[in-house]
Design goal:
It is a single chain. This protein has eight helices and eight strands, in the order βαβαβαβαβαβααββα. By secondary structure, it is α/β, with parallel strands linked by helices. The protein has one domain: NAD(P)-binding Rossmann-like Domain (Rossmann fold, 3-Layer(aba) Sandwich), CATH 3.40.50.720. It has an eight-stranded mixed sheet, with helices on both faces. Helix 1 packs parallel to helix 2, helix 3 runs parallel beside helix 4 and helix 4 packs parallel to helix 5.
């Protein structure tokens, strides 16, 4: 029985993954912010005869809660799926910051997963999957928190590229693990997509197929970016070692300042 942590498992792609993997026999750790929604996912897994899931509540916009989440997991993990995230926001959304004063999409989509994963590395034995996006934009390290010219879609795309850059670094640091990122599917029928005013063009089931492939398929490479089921190329900045070092330094400085 595998133990799989899925962040953002109470809605959209994360919920679909939790249901699939939980009913297939994995022990799923359901992360979310809303206890009632998490309980509904757990009940659905139980009703389908799946293994008993565990619920972990935390707001990933607060690095102190990310630390508490990491502290609450005291057993071995086979897989971490960093899926939790927010999109560009509703039309008219203005720049937002996290509890730690960090640009919100960077904080939730990337930095929380970066910190949580590094905290959990000593007890992770198999795979790490970072749910990114084909929508990517190079990070401006002169203004990484986008205090000038903020745009929701740009903030989202930069945070997703940061996830891919982290994937490449982590795979190189830990060759004993299989670490990959992916764009699961384009504009899935999720709350994130519909609230941004975009019409869905694919389904959560399609995204779950691609993500499950990275969780379960044998003989996968590591440190790669996938578009759906197929290996692909990310934005050129992902392959720039100097840019990745800038991102590591920025991330570590933001975390050390906040905690």
């Amino acid at each position: 029985m595998q133990t799989i942590l899925i962040t953002g498992a109470t809605d959209g792609l994360g919920r679909e993954l939790a249901l699939r993997l939980g009913t297939a026999g994995a022990r799923v750790l359901i992360h979310g912010r809303d206890g009632a929604r998490a309980e509904r996912v757990r009940a659905a897994i139980r009703a389908a005869g799946g293994s008993e899931p565990e619920i972990l509540l935390a707001d990933l916009a607060d690095l102190h809660e990310v630390d508490k989440l990491a502290d609450s997991i005291d057993h071995e993990l086979d897989v971490i799926v960093n899926n939790a995230g927010i999109g560009a926001g509703k039309p008219g959304t203005t720049r937002e910051v996290s509890a730690d004063g960090i640009e919100l999409r960077f904080a939730i989509n990337y930095l929380a997963g970066y910190h949580l994963t590094r905290r959990l590395l000593p007890q992770t034995t198999g795979r790490i999957v970072n749910v990114a996006s084909a929508g990517q934009q190079a990070i401006d390290f002169a203004d990484p928190m986008m205090e000038r010219d903020w745009d929701g879609f740009a903030a989202y795309m930069r945070s997703k590229l940061a996830q891919i850059m982290f994937t490449i670094d982590l795979a190189a640091e830990h060759p004993e693990l299989i670490v990959n990122s992916l764009h699961p599917a384009t504009f899935m029928n999720t709350t994130m997509v519909t609230e941004s005013g975009v019409n869905p063009t694919s389904t959560v089931a399609e995204g779950a197929d691609a993500t499950t492939h990275l969780i379960t398929a044998p003989n996968l490479p590591t440190g790669r970016y996938f578009n759906g089921l197929h290996e692909s190329r990310a934005n050129a900045q992902a392959y720039d070692p100097n840019a990745r070092k800038h991102l590591r330094d920025l991330s570590d400085n933001l975390i050390s300042t906040a905690i």
